């Protein structure tokens, strides 16, 4: 089994992220809930914000959020931690994250 740290994490430059990519990342209710959790409390582990899906599906959600420029991930000991790239994302797509977070607040628990 390969180590989760065997491959470096790809964090794209925000100017390389298209508007459709950003919208696609935010349209899924699980990813939207993950983003909302990180907006409330940055630096959470993957396990703390992982949606109720299989590990491969959760990994895919994290990868999509990273590829859309929403998520920064780093390893700390045995945990992978997460934070929103809020300032950068807001500069690239002003108001989009605020709108998404407002919609996330309307999702059922």
Question: Can you tag this structure with a few keywords?
Answer:
single chain, about 110 residues, alpha+beta, three-stranded antiparallel sheet, 3 strands, globular, ArsR family transcriptional regulator
Outline the structure in words.
With 109 residues, the protein is an alpha+beta fold. Helix content is 50%, strand content 13%. The chain contains 6 helices and 3 strands; from the N terminus they run H-H-E-H-H-E-E-H-H. It has helices at residues 19-27, 29-40, 46-49, 55-67, 86-92, 96-105, and strands at residues 44-45, 71-76, 79-84. The chain has a 3-stranded antiparallel beta sheet. A hairpin with a 2-residue loop joins strand 2 and strand 3. Helix 1 runs antiparallel to helix 4 and helix 2 (29-40) packs across helix 6. The radius of gyration is 13 Å and the shape is globular. The chain starts with 18 loop residues before the first helix and ends with a helix.
Could you outline the blueprint of secondary structure elements for this entry?
Blueprint: H1 19-27, H2 29-40, E1 44-45, H3 46-49, H4 55-67, E2 71-76, E3 79-84, H5 86-92, H6 96-105
Antiparallel strand pairs: 1-3, 2-3
Helix pairs in contact: 1-4, 2-6
């Amino acid at each position: 089994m390969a180590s989760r740290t065997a491959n470096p994490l790809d964090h794209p430059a925000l100017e390389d992220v298209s508007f459709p990519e950003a919208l696609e990342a935010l349209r899924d209710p699980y990813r939207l809930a993950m983003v909302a959790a990180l907006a409330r409390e940055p630096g959470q582990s993957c396990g703390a914000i992982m949606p109720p899906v299989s590990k491969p599906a959760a990994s895919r959600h994290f990868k999509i959020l990273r590829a859309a420029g929403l998520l920064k991930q780093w390893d700390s000991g045995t945990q992978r931690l997460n934070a929103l790239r809020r300032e950068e994302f807001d500069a690239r797509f002003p108001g989009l994250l605020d709108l998404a977070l407002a919609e996330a607040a309307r999702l059922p628990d």
